[in-house]
Fold:
Amino acid sequence: MRAKIMPALLGAAMLIATSAQAAATPEDKAAAALLAGPKFAKAQASLKGDYERIIQDIITLTEIEAPPFKETARGKAYMAMLKAEGLTDVEMDEVGNVMGLRKGTGGGPLIVVTAHLDTVFPEGTNVKVRREGNGLYAPGIGDDTSSLPVQLAFIRAMNRAGYTTKADILFMGNVGEEGPGDLRGTRYLFSKGKYKDRIKSFISFEPGQPGRITNAGTGSRRYKVTFNGPGGHSMGDFGIVSPAFAMGNAIVAFGKLKAPAEPKTVYNVGIVEGGTSVNSIPFSTAMTIDMRSNGKAELDAEEKAFLSLLPGAVAEENAARSTAKGKISYEAKLVGDRPVGSTPMDARIIKVAGAVARASGFDPKYGAGSTDSNIPMSLGIEAVTLASGFETFRAHSLEEGMKMNSPEDLRNMGVGLATVLALAEAR
Amino acid sequence: MRAKIMPALLGAAMLIATSAQAAATPEDKAAAALLAGPKFAKAQASLKGDYERIIQDIITLTEIEAPPFKETARGKAYMAMLKAEGLTDVEMDEVGNVMGLRKGTGGGPLIVVTAHLDTVFPEGTNVKVRREGNGLYAPGIGDDTSSLPVQLAFIRAMNRAGYTTKADILFMGNVGEEGPGDLRGTRYLFSKGKYKDRIKSFISFEPGQPGRITNAGTGSRRYKVTFNGPGGHSMGDFGIVSPAFAMGNAIVAFGKLKAPAEPKTVYNVGIVEGGTSVNSIPFSTAMTIDMRSNGKAELDAEEKAFLSLLPGAVAEENAARSTAKGKISYEAKLVGDRPVGSTPMDARIIKVAGAVARASGFDPKYGAGSTDSNIPMSLGIEAVTLASGFETFRAHSLEEGMKMNSPEDLRNMGVGLATVLALAEAR
Structure:
């Protein structure tokens, strides 16, 4: 998950359902009816009875490393869990997504409900979970490992409550959501996956504030720009061009770009690297940069501006020092490309998610993020990213963690479950 | 070796010894006598017979990685080779220098003859030697790996020719000559090593032009400058200051410094690093830079100019973006400090080296470098850095290589060997 979402600090007042006063639309009425029904009470009781099991599954999965491109071990473990819940057609696809079907009553659409398997942490990171008071700490535990067992609890709750749905629901743990993964799991699902032509709606679960509905996908373009030159000896070859100076020119020029505030558009030099020793003129330096925007035109314009400044930065260095041993050249490699997209406010998934949030006592907050939902959004398939339940913190840092506050957690999970049920036309 | 030395292109005319006409000093006469003696002919024959073995040893040692601070594996291999030549007191000292004594006839001084074990290349660099025509290619093969087996060939030549010397000769492979090593091997030898109070003369062998006598030590100051800032999320925190942009400003300003041509003064950005992920504003970036001069005053002035540009580079970034979450600060840490030094022209080692060069048909070229000799020079102990024999090229680059031109190579090696013999008062 790439959009910063503050942990919910819920007052007791918010725990009072306000469904009655907001029940204005057909979706609001349906949501209120669903939440008030006897089956949903059973489903909530199932979640409550499963609380310790959910925590245990989070610990189990967190302690199976899942670095970018290396999610297989965790994927296999999660696939076994999906199978144990009685799903059919359980499988791992070519890129490592794991999934299984909870079949509907027939003739309905296919809905994907997913959380991502991968974390940002490299192989060898200590992922042993530490418990301290009501906190659990380990890299990746919140984003997005905590969402995976919640999905399993949804399946059990649906089964125990005796829900049938019109839609087929594909429960999934997908690969490649984080940085370098570049949404490759969802990309595959929608471009080559066997269900690609059947998916009507898409929900991805991530940690987040209850009531948050991510209905827009921030687009991003990421480049690794490598500057190459002849390299040489700092004393003997002094005076020849250096990729370090060319990169310096590019960084300074990049830092002067003006980015529109609305739609929000940003840029960043994330990583700089290069050179072999203090007394060698580098033969290569590189920078990895990020550009993002909530507007497609603005992202395209920013990308164009960035790519246009590179030749000048390099030419300036080639003019400033000797090119007798070779010139500076550069290569800009696209290393990330997340499409801009959004789900319109009148899409059914938005109306249903908003109605369930309101019926559960939350004021829906719509916003943009950079998640697996970007892919279906960019393809015109309705999609949202919703909060899975737990309060988490310090995502992407070694101090990542989550809180165990069972009443709030269970209430938040109930919102997610109800949204899935409403969307799938459960009975 | 830090001074670039052009490979010799020797015309046939230069192959005619001109010792007779130049035999003006006692050292010239002694050199001419030594080169004309029957033992030296045997020594040269030994070098010639060893040529293929020298090449093989160069390949063997080159293919044992020796990154800065990680010379142990190569050091052990070279120590075994020193032992195999029959040296006594063969050992590895506390910092990793390996050495052995060829004892003199008694009552003589101690002379150190050394080449350095370390290369500039980091662990994991492909050091497999590639042969192409009469060229051998691999990172580090020239500087200074090619010198190590030449020293072994010297010992064998002395033994086979039946030379005894008045001086004890300590043959050595030393650590830490390159960049970050900051001459730590020689520093240790002269400050804590067991022979520290006995060393009268010091010769270090490096690749170089025959006739080249490095009798002055280029001084250097090296800094690792770290730029620190609040860091944050590339989207959520866009607009805050970034250490990457501050470093960009510093690199560009550094690249605009004017350095005097005489005494030669240079600067270099050797390594840039920083950032954790493409979508995080770095909390830290760093650059490691090199400044050198053959003049103490010029080096001091350059250092002052460099340190003076840093506050401006940081202030520019603090003015360009928001400091609401914290300002950019920087720390400039001195990571290398090589003393400027020289061996006076009337020192015996200079007179002997010059005489042998002349007697061998070369016009001695005196000059400055930044080598292990800087340390004894700065302590007032006579020292030179001499060419070990092979023509090498592209030192410190991944295209580093050496030529195999056996007549020239053997002649050049003979100059080094004769210098050692003359200095050690061989009979």
Summary: Residues 1-23 of chain B have pLDDT under 50 and may be disordered. Residues 35 and 231 of chain B are 67 Å apart (CA to CA). Chain B has 13 helices and 19 strands. The longest helix of chain B spans residues 296-320.
